[in-house]
């Protein structure tokens, strides 16, 4: 029994020692400060961004139509200044293209052209539009014709017919004659290269709209030709169509003739 009592005393002493040791250790752990968090710096080198490739868009190109005179090759709209070719040839500058001014025409009875240009085709909307018959007209008239094509004819064909104009049926340009081909009549503006007659239009879908048949044709053709007539009245001093007289039943006549003392009047029929 004495042995048992001593053993129990020893166990109590050992337990007390263990508890004391654990308390001391816990106190030491609680007293030790935790390290502060620091940002991570990896072994990474930041390179400057690579420059993006700078692609240069090619300048606007205008293909040279086959068989077209070099004088009719269009130039970009933003660079309309035309440098004369060798020989100091004079140029008639239009909207986006140019044509060479030929030697003046001196005809009989007051006929003639001061600054004649010869047109086999015109340029509108960046595309060549052929003429069924070449015409020779005054440079100033060619400039008015160019504006009418660009602003009136080409948009009207797309709007009313859904197509583009490929050729223009020309009826007359310079012609030394009296008005309406009447002998003894006053000199026609055609005799000055100051008039042009247009009889019809070939379209990109294969159709042809003529003034003679289309003036009272389908509603779309009527709207198309009426738009051309109205737009011409805002640009030329004389515009005559099928409603003017029997001499113009099959074509549109445009000229830059003088009307009135100050040449300020316009004739639109």
Automatic annotation (TrEMBL):
Residues 1-31 form the signal peptide. InterPro entries: Extensin-like_C. Keywords: Signal. Pfam families: Extensin-like_C (PF06904). It comes from the Bacteria. Residues 103-269 form the Extensin-like C-terminal domain. This is Uncharacterized conserved protein.
């Amino acid at each position: 029994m004495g042995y048992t009592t001593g053993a129990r005393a020893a166990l109590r002493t050992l337990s007390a020692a263990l508890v004391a040791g654990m308390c001391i250790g816990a106190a030491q752990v609680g007293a030790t400060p935790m390290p502060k968090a620091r940002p991570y710096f990896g072994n990474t080198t930041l390179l400057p961004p690579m420059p993006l490739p700078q692609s240069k868009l090619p300048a606007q190109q205008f293909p040279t139509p086959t068989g077209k005179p070099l004088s009719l090759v269009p130039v970009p709209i933003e660079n309309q200044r035309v440098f004369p070719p060798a020989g100091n040839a004079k140029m008639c500058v239009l909207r986006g293209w140019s044509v060479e001014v030929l030697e003046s025409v001196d005809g009989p009875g007051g006929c003639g052209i001061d600054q004649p240009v010869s047109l086999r085709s015109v340029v509108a909307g960046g595309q060549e539009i052929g003429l069924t018959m070449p015409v020779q007209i005054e440079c100033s008239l060619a400039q008015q014709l160019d504006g009418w094509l660009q602003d009136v004819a080409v948009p009207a064909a797309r709007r009313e017919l859904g197509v583009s104009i490929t050729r223009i049926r020309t009826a007359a340009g310079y012609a030394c004659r009296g008005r309406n081909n009447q002998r003894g009549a006053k000199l026609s503006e055609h005799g000055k290269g100051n008039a042009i007659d247009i009889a019809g239009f070939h379209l990109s879908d294969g159709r042809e709209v003529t003034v003679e048949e289309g003036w009272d044709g389908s509603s779309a053709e009527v709207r198309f030709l009426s738009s051309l007539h109205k737009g011409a009245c805002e640009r030329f001093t004389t515009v005559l169509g099928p409603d003017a007289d029997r001499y113009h039943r099959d074509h549109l006549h445009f000229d830059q003739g003088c009307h009135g003392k100050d040449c300020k009047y316009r004739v639109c029929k």
